[in-house]
# Entry
Amino acid sequence: MKNSRIVFVLWLAALVVLQAAALQAGAPVGELLIATAVVGLMMLLYLLFSERIMRESLPKITGNGGEFGLPGLLWFIFLVLTLLAAPPNGVMGLVVAGAILWVPTGLIVRQQAALSPVQAVAGLTVLLIPLFGGVLFGGSLTSTDVALRLGAFALPALLLALTTRAQKSRLEFYFISAVLFIWYTVEFGAAPGLRLPFTGGLISYMQLALIVLFLYLVTLAGRLPDLGYTFELNRKDWREVLINFALLAVIVLPLGLLTGFVRPSAALPSIAEIAGRGAAIFFFVALPEELLFRGVIHRYLERVLRWTPLATLSLSSIIFGAAHLDNPPNVGYYFILASIAGFFYGRTYLRTGKIVPAALVHLLIDWVWSVLFAG
# Structure
């Protein structure tokens, strides 16, 4: 099946799952219509970046300030939704949403390969916005929260401190700062929490908008071909999915059971809930995380460090594991198991050259965990 047809089927399936979940949650019809329209647009943009025409035509139609058109559209939709939902701190939410959408775009527009002192200072400074922006909404930080944010801030700082002169010439520090900006915004909950539908919200608008923005900025930076973002899979791709899922399951499930990190569920969810979980995991966890950690961060480390494939895969897997340190309890086990999982997700990606097979292995692991070992 061609990629465009698969995109349409996935888009339709996402809307069906949204409507079913919203109706079950008792969302009013008006809110359901608004949510369907907005989520439908965001999901369409999200999936269309897998089309070759996007990576070929988008850079040609932006320039002279046109790069800020899509972030402007995303912010305008947020404005309309804010007026309709009238959330508390609405004005502050509009300001923060604007910064979250436009700051990384500005970094990409000004990116250059060679590192300069201005780049280093500016790139590190803007990361303070997602790392500590949640305080603007009245949030408080524990000592653990501060430690995690300092650890996240250390990642780009270590790139600056530990790379050689030759590696620094390939850093493209504004690019990686923009990528980290978006990741940290989601990871640390810095985005305004406007959800759709407004009553019993199921999906964060800004989470969807940031996935679209992320793919847009990767495209502007000329990195979309690196991702291997296509839904057209061949037999070899499916074989790698099954092999790496089996290898990973054989390692992590016994380890998780022995350590008590996972336990068999006492009861199974309904078929509808199982299907809904699968769709949610794929669209909002597995695919976005693989696009970020394998498609962008791993490829970035390859380009900058030029280490052996195994060394780069190990480093990117450890970074993926560290991204789960804010998932209590038993963060130590979580870090180890997530790092092992990241290794096999990365292995799938490197052996297929495509991001979707890695996302499918990720989906299967999280799905089995969610359904059979949630207790």
User: Anything to note?
Assistant: The two ends are 38 Å apart (CA to CA). The chain has a mean pLDDT of 91. Residues 58 and 231 are 20 Å apart (CA to CA). The longest strand covers residues 195-196.
